Amino acid sequence: MPSAFTIALIPLLPLLGFVLLGCFGRQVFRKYSGILATTLLFGATIIACFTAYRYFFHEGSGDAGYESLVPLKLTWLQFGEGLSIDMGIMLDPVAVMMLVVVTFVSLMVHIYSLSYMKGEERFPTYFAFLSLFTFSMLGLVISSNIFQLYIFWELVGLSSFLLIGYHYDRPSAVAASKKAFIVTRFADLGFLVGILVLSYFSNSLDFPTLIQRLTDPGSDELKAAVSSSFLGVSALTWGMLLVFMGGAGKSAMFPLHIWLPDAMEGPTPVSALIHAATMVVAGVFLVARLFPVYALSAGLALDVVAVVGAVSALLAAVIACAQTDIKRVLAYSTMSQIGFMMFALGVSGYGESGYTASQFHLFTHALFKALLFLGAGVVIHYVHSNEMRDMGGLRRQLPLTHVAFLIGCLAIAGIPPFAGFFSKEQILEAAHQNNRAIYWTALVTSGLTAFYMFRLYFSVFWNRPTHPGKTHGREGSVAMLLPLVILATAAATAGFIPFGEFVSSDGKPVDLHLQLSSAILPVMAALGGISLAAWFFLRENDRAARAAFAVKGLYRLARNKFYIDEIWLFLTRKIVFGLIGRPAAWFDKYVVDGLVNLTGNSTALLSEKIKTLQSGRLQQYALWFLAGAIGLVVLFIYVWK
Amino acid sequence: MMTPGLYHLLFLSTALFFIGVYGFFNRRNLISLLMSVELILNSVNLNFVAFNKYVWPGRLDGLFFTIFIIAIAAAEAAVAIAIIINLYHTHRSIDVEAAEELKH
């Protein structure tokens, strides 16, 4: 095993980049800031790959599958017997897999940004924030303590806020960054309460201890957590549900997904980073981290995870079909795919294939979603617009991007032999075995996924040609195209990795066999979606408009994202602000402030009255002093004896 | 010849004390005020010595206190005279009524 220090370098190198660029970026490294951040991250990527190699092939595999190792644990705050906040490193298959994914995708985004963000005024600041984002996510995945995870969790939220609001001179970007921060922060409130509930019952914040105590049927902690109930649901289930609320906020699950499409205001490489590797998968990672507790002790909470995941997947897919902004379509596709990961966890049992399928999908999704976003970045860079109607026929001008984007679309649609096919197939297989309703939902969603992704693909690269006056220059520099090539290769081949050998909830290898009979239906659905999209969008015609008119009620609903933003606005403005906020403000202004002002005013009045005692005449003071002394003497002699 | 008892001494010290108080309130000259304060301090010293001699004859606490008070009174006189000299520099007077700027 590489030493704890070496592993700690993986998050610390990006942190070093952040500190260097944050403090001296503008003065010292102005020109080389991007190169510096990329080099540091490259080092971290090498160490992460090395760590993964050592873990999976040497130190990690014990007799009973992969074990979780804790090479570093430093107590930071001790609260009492056993309850402490530690800073540590915990390696298990998921964490190691995430280390590789996060560093790799982040490295691709860094390289891409070198060219994409060139000439920006705040170039060094951008790379400083990018490094901070990477550091936070890397710290999150290796946390050995649930509170340590929470600290990095908030850092992820903060750095996403900084990056989404990178163009701070644009009001829409400012609003989007605030929205992302507030929505996820609201969800994190649930997470914090969940942490407190879990730590209260398990008397530990340490992941291995916490999981062990809350899954062992004989332990006192589990009995206490299950027997005390609130509103008919056990405290443990409440705790796990609240933790999931935090995860749902970060992972943009219905109904807390509203920040995700607006987060597209950030620069496109940032969207790639948020969507592929860092922020939105944090929620999936959290559920996976606590998966033994969900699966063994809180089945109800796990069912909620499954239902929320399935609903989000379907809802996002429907909305994506009616969006016209290229990045928003991709944003909703992310939400839909994260929904897949969530319900795959939700339908899985401990040690079953659903968990592995979910993590596999996380892995492949990171690759092809980064590819799609970076490809979209090239298109946007070339056309100078996010709107699909400004694009079309770009396959001639952008041949390399075209092929890369096609590979990404085929991967997300689940066409063999691309990566998405394998992972999605496993998810559907797991759903098929455990929950038929979710299976059919997922099947419909896969068809929709293929439809809207190819709607995007055909509208951008086929259809009518783009107006030549709107485009400019070449396809892009090497720094922009190299990550596309690497990611396209990865997205095309990653499905052949025997993922079940490495990652599972209990450490034992899972047999991810692929049955051709069960693969037929999803592939047919995907092909159907693609054909439909081709029929509508391959050439310029009015079929799509007529079809939209035929289902105009549904179309308008999807176009307006099912009015969920408006529902939230109604809830917050009318109910929370009107019924709670305003009365509270009135109480604060007139009662609380009134009491304070009363104290101040009466003191001022009294001192105005008695200030003439301060005459400046020494003998008068002495007289008062003498009178006081005599008064005390009288008091002591005659009254108190 | 009559030896003085505790009561004589207490009478003397009370008389000294009130003479001092009277002087402190009625004089305007700061030097006189300082002298009045010395009188008050010495009346206290006399009390200490008298009680020490007649109530706890075998002990020395009262005497020590007296010595401390004399030492501190000397320091106090030095400080007070320094103040008075400075006051004279600024006000051309050592009348206590002349220095009354420090007020509301």
Q: Describe it for me?
A:
The complex is a heterodimer of chains A (641) and B (104). By secondary structure, chain A is mainly alpha-helical. In chain A, 72% of the residues lie in helices and 4% in strands. Chain A has 26 helices and six strands. In chain A, helix 12 runs parallel beside helix 15 and helix 17 runs parallel beside helix 20. The model of chain A has no long low-confidence stretch (mean pLDDT 84). Chain B has one domain: Helix Hairpins (Orthogonal Bundle), CATH 1.10.287.3510. Chain B contains three helices and no strands. Chain B is 74% helix and 0% strand. In chain B, helix 1 runs antiparallel to helix 2. Chain B is elongated. With 104 residues, chain B is mostly helical.
Quick recap:
The complex is a heterodimer of chains A (641) and B (104). By secondary structure, chain A is mostly helical.
Keywords summarizing the entry:
A: 641 residues; mainly alpha; two-stranded antiparallel sheet; B: mainly alpha; Helix Hairpins; 3 helices; 74% helix
Q: Give the terminus-to-terminus CA distance of chain B.
A: 59 Å
Give the overall form of chain B: elongated
**Could you tell me how far the N terminus lies from the C terminus of chain A, measured between alpha carbons in angstroms?**
82 Å
Q: Helix coverage percent of residues of chain B?
A: over 70%
What's the number of helices of chain B? 3
- Could you tell me which chain pair has the largest interface and how many residues each side has? A-B, 12 and 12 residues
What would the average pLDDT of chain A be, to the nearest integer? 84
Structural class of chain B: mainly alpha
**Mean pLDDT level of chain B:** 90
Largest sheet of chain B: none
Percent helix range of chain A: over 70%
Radius of gyration of chain B: 17 Å
Backbone structural class of chain A: mainly alpha
Strand order of the largest sheet of chain A: 1-2
Strand content of chain A: under 5%
Low-confidence stretches of chain A: none
Q: Poorly predicted ranges of chain B (pLDDT <50, ≥5 residues)?
A: none
Q: Would you tell me which CATH topology of chain B applies? A: Helix Hairpins
